[in-house]
């Protein structure tokens, strides 16, 4: 598992341009699509949970690290994926969830968090202590961020069933973890000297856990990729020029890029060539899920399969209006503009509502309607690209129905560019 990740990083550093897809999602259909694609490609797959999604208190998914790991590995087993092809990762593990309290209390909870992750079998651990707590100076000094990351690394080393199986990631992207670029923010790629300084500060801080420093696999930097609710900042290789200089003297370390959602395939290849061997993606996959569901619902309505039921978009609209905390601070404009954003934004804040019972019931009913109708190919082609229809045909045995196979195929279409053969 983790050794295959180290091998991939080594090949990338040697010039292969190979990348590791990092799927950051807890959506069951997204995970199913990703696991099936990894099986098809005979490739390594990294699946990550964040500290907001999954933590010792359940996070917003209601799952602890052990529960998430158990469900994911069980799903992978049912789908026939070789266990050696799956790496579990913890993303942005640090005091963020508890930053409203004192630093001492937040770090105590963060230590409990990382212990729970490594005991549950997570191997790739991103240590992120970049956000200040209530009694911290703002901005948080970089040396203090590094010192706290080292403290958590030491906790991991003591708690892991086999510390040698761990790989660490340090650093954080800009803007803040888990948040898309705000309209007023300017995206600035990390400068080589800043990346080198982050490495130095962490190397010094890891003197309290020297064995852990030897297993630091990646540094998170900003190569110049992001998305806001309404636009995507596409990667320009010239903007990240020279970043590789920061890796000199660190032969086992690569870069990790966050928020690579909606990037063009050639940009992903260019990132790989620049030693960004780990590419994270999440909202683009749940957005593909949402678009496929809305397309199925539109087709169902056109074929008379919805009867007097509300549209799926109407169901989701009611859920989002009833509980606006997941989107209210992210979407602005007129009432009509906010409605469009709730459903169609690149930020895909609707993803927080799919686990609710009303949404699950509406999706299940939609699947049943489509599978009962069995739209013929000459109808399907008006709603889905030929590539999605063809891929769905191959997924039917695993999906068990036309509707789910089309949804999985649409998600795989968004994820496919992250899987690429070695070029060296």
Widest beta sheet: strand line-up: 1-2-3-4-5-6-9-10
Can you count the beta strands? 10
Q: How far apart, in Å, are the first and last alpha carbons?
A: 22 Å
Give the second-level CATH assignment, the architecture of the largest domain. Alpha-Beta Barrel
Overall structural class, as computed from helix and strand content, comes to alpha/beta
The gyration radius over C-alpha positions equals 21 Å
Average pLDDT confidence is 94
Estimate the global geometry from the Cα principal axes: globular
Question: What percent of residues adopt helix (DSSP H or I)?
Answer: 40-55%
CATH level 3 topology of the largest domain: TIM Barrel
Which features does this protein show?
GI Alpha 1, domain 2-like; TIM Barrel; 10 strands; globular; 15 helices
Verbal overview:
- This protein has 424 residues and is α/β, with parallel strands linked by helices.
- The protein has 2 domains: 2-281, TIM Barrel (Alpha-Beta Barrel); 286-413, GI Alpha 1, domain 2-like, CATH 1.10.400.
- It contains 15 helices and 10 strands.
- The chain has helices at residues 2-13, 28-41, 65-78, 103-119, 142-159, 192-205, 210-213, 265-273, 283-302, 312-322, 335-344, 357-373, 377-380, 386-399, 402-415, and strands at 20-24, 45-50, 86-93, 124-127, 167-171, 216-220, 226-227, 232-233, 254-257, 276-281.
- It has an 8-stranded parallel barrel, surrounded by 8 helices. The protein has a two-stranded antiparallel ribbon with strand order 7-8.
């Amino acid at each position: 598992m983790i050794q295959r990740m180290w091998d991939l990083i080594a090949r990338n550093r040697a010039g292969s341009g190979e990348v590791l897809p990092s799927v950051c999602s807890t959506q069951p259909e997204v995970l199913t699509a990703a696991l099936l694609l990894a099986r098809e490609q005979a490739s390594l797959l990294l699946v990550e949970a964040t500290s907001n999604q999954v933590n010792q208190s359940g996070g917003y998914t209601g799952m602890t690290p052990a529960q998430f790991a158990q469900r994911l590995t069980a799903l992978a087993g049912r789908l026939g994926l070789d266990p050696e092809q799956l790496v579990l990762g913890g993303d942005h593990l640090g005091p963020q969830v508890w930053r409203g309290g004192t630093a001492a209390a937040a770090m105590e909870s963060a230590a409990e968090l990382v212990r729970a992750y490594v005991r549950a079998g997570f191997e790739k651990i991103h240590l992120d202590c970049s956000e200040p707590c209530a009694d911290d100076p703002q901005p948080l000094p970089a040396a203090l961020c590094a010192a706290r990351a080292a403290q958590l690394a030491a906790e991991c080393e003591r708690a892991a069933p086999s510390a040698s199986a761990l790989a660490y990631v340090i650093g954080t992207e800009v803007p803040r973890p888990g948040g898309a670029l705000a309209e007023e923010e300017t995206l600035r790629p990390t400068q080589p000297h800043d990346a080198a300084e982050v490495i130095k500060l962490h190397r010094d801080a890891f003197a309290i856990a020297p064995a852990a420093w030897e297993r630091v696999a990646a540094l998170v930097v900003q190569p110049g990729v992001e998305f806001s609710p309404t636009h995507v900042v596409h990667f320009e290789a010239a903007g990240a020029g020279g970043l590789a200089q920061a890796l000199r003297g660190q032969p086992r370390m690569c870069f990790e890029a966050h928020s690579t959602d909606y990037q063009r395939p050639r940009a992903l290849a260019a990132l790989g060539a620049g030693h960004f061997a780990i590419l994270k993606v999440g909202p683009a996959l749940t957005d593909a899920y949402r678009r496929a569901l809305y397309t199925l619902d539109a087709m169902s309505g056109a074929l008379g399969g919805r009867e007097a039921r509300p549209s799926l978009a109407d169901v989701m609209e009611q859920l989002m209006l009833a509980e606006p905390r997941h989107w209210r601070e992210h979407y602005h404009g007129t009432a009509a503009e906010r409605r469009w954003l709730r459903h169609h934004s690149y930020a895909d804040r609707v993803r927080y509502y799919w686990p609710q019972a009303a949404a699950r019931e509406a999706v299940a009913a939609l699947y049943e309607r489509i599978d009962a109708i069995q739209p013929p190919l000459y109808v399907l082609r008006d709603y889905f690209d030929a590539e999605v229809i063809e891929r769905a045909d191959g997924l039917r045995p695993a999906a068990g129905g036309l509707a789910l196979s089309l949804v999985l195929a649409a998600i795989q279409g968004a994820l496919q560019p992250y899987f690429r053969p070695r070029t060296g």
